[in-house]
Amino acid sequence: MTKKALLKRIECAYLPVTNVAASAAWYEQVLGLTLRSPIKPGKGAIMIMGSGQWLFLLPSPEGHPLHFTTTGWTEDGSQFEMFPICFETDDIRTLELSLRESGVWMEQEVRDEGGCGLQLNFKDPDGNKFQVWQQPVG
Question: Which residues contact 135 (CB under 8 A, 6 or more apart)?
Fold first, then answer.
């Protein structure tokens, strides 16, 4: 007997940032997200993605960015700084240019992973590491 999946999808994600207002501005200007409502002092910000899903930017004064080290991502078992969130985009080339212009850490270039599409790893100004993915073309 197959058990029905009790989790449907990820509704939102919570990201630690050291300066909510500066991060919200970066997510707007660089990633094109929309700030849902004005930022209240000491509180976080809600950023809306193109799909309507929310990213919460929450104050984390000590700065504990999202990433971890794993040996399960490389073929040789070496250490890899992993991203906990992979986003999808329809325009990875424009996103790559926007990230490059912002000066944040990112991979040298977009990788073509064949059937796994185009991929790019990057970090936001707080060091939160992400991957962005675009469906294979053609």
Answer: 88, 117
Quick one: which H or E segment has residue 98?
helix 92-102
25 and 76 share one domain: no
DSSP state of 116: G
Residue reference for tokens 């424009």: 94
Tell me the chain's radius of gyration from C-alpha atoms.
16
- Contact between 103 and 89 (Cβ < 8 Å): no
- Domain containing residue 22: 12-62
> Could you tell me the CATH number of the domain that includes residue 32?
3.10.180.10
Task: Give the DSSP H or E segment for 101.
Answer: helix 92-102
Tens-digit pLDDT string for the chain (138 aa): 889 998 898 899 999 999 999 999 999 999 999 999 999 989 999 999 999 999 999 999 888 999 999 999 999 999 999 999 999 999 999 999 999 999 999 999 999 999 889 999 999 999 999 999 999 876
Phi and psi at residue 24, in whole multiples of 5°?
-60, -40
pTM of the predicted structure, to 2 decimals: 0.91
